[in-house]
Amino acid sequence: MTRRTMAPDSDDVAPDDEGDDGTDTVCFGYRGQQFEVELDAAQQHALDAVLRRYIAAGRVTV
Looking at residues 33-42, what average pLDDT do you find? Predict the structure, then answer.
């Protein structure tokens, strides 16, 4: 299987926004699938806030 990785220059949530203030790849799993999304700092904080209660109630798996 081939995997292609590209370096982002904008986030994936609002790619048309101007003024890239830096993005990071955020990896997460949901319902047995793994996802990666490019998010800026504000979007990362928003995702953290939404997931906080579920993470607190969940358990880490390996």
Answer: 96
